[in-house]
Structure formats: structure tokens, C-alpha cells
# Entry
Amino acid sequence: MQIFGYPLDLDPILLTLEVAAITTVVLLIIGTPIAWALSQMRSRARIFLEALVALPLVLPPTVLGFYLIIALNPNGEIAQLLKYVGYDGQLTFNKMGLIIGSVIYSLPFTVQPIMASFEALPTQIVDAARTMRASFLDRFFTVIVPLARQGFLVGSVLTFAHTVGEFGVVLMVGGNIEGQTRTVSIAIFDHVESFEYAEAHMLSLIMVIFSILVLMFVYALNRKLQIKQA
Amino acid sequence: MFKGNLQLKLGNFALDSGEFQFESAGVTVLFGRSGSGKSTLLRALSGLDRGTRGTLFFGDECWQSGKTALPVEARDIGFVFQTAALLPGKTVQSNLNYATQRVPKNRAQGPSFEEITQRVGITHLLTRPVDNLSGGERQRVAIARALLTRPRVLMMDEPLSALDWRAKTELLALIESVIADYQIPTLYITHAPVEVERLANRVVFMAEGHITSIETLAEATTRIDSPLFTEEGPVSVLHGHLGRVDEDGLIAFESAQSGAFCFWLNTTEPTGTPLMKHKARLRVLARDVALARARIEGISMLNQIAATITRIEADPKTHRQAVFLTLSDGQALIAELSQRSVESLNLAPKQTVFALVKTAALLDH
# Structure
């Protein structure tokens, strides 16, 4: 594909958006219960668990990627276990590997904002819902999620954006297979390596514009969702 | 009937109620200074905190036994918090719907939605978002919501504390009449003696996380060291009903037992207003009561009530003498006199005297 006379390879962009979208959905599903459990925890174990969740923030992506390759190798326990329950695909060097790596690497970006908003919940409103006979799941979806919506918004946008911008883990776990695991960031790296500056420019510019748009969207929505205290 | 013994730790604060038992009918006020454990006890009674331990029975229903607790959702309680705790961003109507939609079929009787919203005075607010209501309006919505929960017990944790004085007065009158009309057993927290005198049937006194005593309002106001008494000194609360408003603008406050006593009070009601048989409470400061051995002629004071002296006690705080009187319908009135007056009048128990009441305030009006 050509834009303004410059060559543009769409495959990495589509792959990146797909992986980021799936990762965000998966992380909202598994990150929300983790955030809730942590926010309600009063024991000492919480410090350790919070550190564990935050680990991907400080660990070099290559370290994480290295452990993942080892843990997910086709002859390892995890792959064998999955084979036992019916999944016999590969867990590394394909899209599945990209998603698993991204989910683990972006975990803190989902969990931390949601957890913060759970901790800031006005407890009297949640208590009031209980006295009105709302069961846990009932008040979770009718009271807690609406009150914590800013946390969910920030969490999902950060997760999506962070997954789009990922490099290290993706390279380690996904490899660099054209059309299968070559995401935008890896494609740019490749282009630069082979002195294809025009292509690198094109992709980089798209990333810059995309990032600015995402951040503007978050700030605008955040302002709109501001909760008035009642 | 509430019966039990509850423990609950919240932060640095530890509640250890001790054994307690009290009737649930009417209004039970939890009274104590801030930090005495009133709110913690109410939370323990409501079951809102998972950390609650001990035993609790409501009637013969077990609400708490050790760590096992009946969930709040199954207790049928209506709760009004210090802040209205409404769902932000929603209308008054949908806030109320949240309560009505979750009422089980077997509790769905009682006054209608329309009657309650009208009674609480929020019919004109139903379509408004709750976010821009005034504090008083918001608390009205919270009260309506609690009533619409169809509670077996209403729990109120200082519902007036966040309001300005005008809204406070209006809401106190509302709460009082709603509780009386709908006959819902109520647990009410306050640290304002006036609210106790006005609402309470019985008082649970609390200090340092314990229940120190549970008394009827009459008992609580006939002991000299009552925690209800402030720097104003001892206070008596007389129950009765209002009579007619006379042509000269005075209103009669009479005992339920006819002829036992009749106070004439100033009122702003227009003359001839039919307030007959309207139940009321009269608050009399002991220092506004003087005593005479005989009825006095030629004095401007209108209210001279015959009474019998039950006992005379020295107020340890003021060195003045508190003379406890019984009116002919059995209600108690306290007069505070100086030691010298008591001696010069030769006052002693069982004597009949006349209580001269300078001023008294109607609590319900």
C-alpha cells in the first residue's frame, strides 16, 4: 500500500491493534477480580502480591520474555496441561504467544488504576446498596463499577496503549515472523536495521499521531466522567 | 427485642458492648460522646462489617453467632447515613427505584410509593438528578429510600449532623412523625440531648466502646448525673397533648390524664387553631422551675402545677439542690433550688408543693 507516495505495510499495524484489543479485554476480565481482591485485602500478604503485580514495571522485558519462553515451551508443564484439556497449539512464536506475553507484561497497567478506584469508593454508598438488599454481584455491577468507571477507563486505555508500544517481550516470545508476530514496533526496528528510513518514518509517524489521539481521548473522557460527590 | 453481646474492631477502636437487651418498638437512641462507639455499635447491629463477632438476636431470629452472621441483605433494615449516600449521576426516581426493585414479595406491603414520597416532601424532585439537590433534600431522599426498603428496623446514624439548623429542624419533625405514623422500630444515633428528649423511648448510653446503661427516657431524665444534662443543668420532659389556642394567643398543654396538669404556653399559631389532642412533649429546665408551699395569688406566672416531692438530691456539679417532683399523673419534674431555699421552705419528701414554671419549650412543634 502507498500513502503520499510512501510505502506502507498494513500487516504489522493490524496485528498490533488486534493483539492490543484482545489483551485489553482479557486483562479487564482477569485484572478486575485481582484488583478487587487486593483492594479488600488487609493481611500482610498484600504487600507481596502488590509487588508481584507491579513486577513487569521494573523487570527488563527480556527477562520476562526469557522466563516465558522457558515456561511455555511445547514440552513444558503448561503446554502439556493445555494439551490434556484439548488445546494443542503452540504457546510461543505465534499470536497466542504475543497475547500471553502482553497480558503478563501489561497486568499492572490494568490492575493498578482499577485497584486505586476501588480503594477510593465512597463506602457509605456501597453500604447503602447492601441495606437495599443488593447481593455482591448485584452491587458490583450496579454501584461499584459505575463509581469506579474512571479506574476502568484509565486502566483499559493504558493497557491498550502500552501493549501497542511493546517491544522486548514481543520480540522474545513472538520472534519476528513476518505476517504472524511482526508488530509495529518490531517492524520499525527491522526497517531501521535495513536502512529503509522511508518505511520507518511512516510507521513512526503513525505511532506518534496514534499516541497523541489516545491520550487526548483519555483526558477528555476522564473530565466528562468526573464523579460529583453526592 | 434486641438481645446480644457484640465485638467489633475498626482501626484503633474496639467495641465490646457487653451483654445487652432492649425492646425494639419505638425509638431507641444510642447516645454518647464522639468516639464512644455509637456508630460502631450500629454497624455491628446492622451487620455491615464482616469483622463483627459475638451474638445478636432480633426477636427470636439469630442475626449473629460468633463469626457467622445473617447477611445485611436478609435483615430487612433501612439505613440512613450521615451523608445521604445516594447513587451519583442518577435521578431521585431511579435512586428510589433501586430500593423498590429489590424488595422481596413477602415484604412488599405498606404505604405506597406515592404516599411515602409525598409524606417526605420530594414529589416535586423525582425527575431531578440527585447531584444538585440541597443537603436537606438529599437527606429526605435518603429517608424515603430507607422507608421504601420496607424495613423491619430503621437505623439512623446522625442523619442531621451534616445539615444547617433550618433543615435540621424540618427534618427532625419529619423523622419524628414518620417514625410515629409508620410504627417502624428505630435505632437512632445522636449526641444532641434535644434530639434524645424529642424522639427517644429509651436510651442506650455508651462510653469508651461499652454500653454503660440502657434506660427509659423517664429514667434517663430523673437522675441527677444523667449524661443527657448539659451546662443547662437537669431537664424534665413531660408527655401530653395540645389543647386549644386561646383568644389571647396562649396554647394549652395538658396531661393525657385529664386534669392532672395544664400548662399555658406562648405560641405563634393563629388563635382558634384546632390542635386538639395533638401529642407533644414539653421540655422544662430545672432552673426555670421555682417552688411554693401554697398556691400564690398576685403573681404574673400562669403555670402553677401541684406536685409531690419524691426526693431531694444535691447536684455534685453546682452544689444546688435538685428537687424531684411527681405530678398527679405520675410524670416527673425537676426543680433546681439553692440550699438556702430548700432549708427556708423546709422542703422534704412527700410534701405537696406548687411548681412555678417560668418557661418551657414544646419539643414537637
Q: What stands out?
A: The mean pLDDT of chain A is 89. The radius of gyration of chain A is 20 Å.
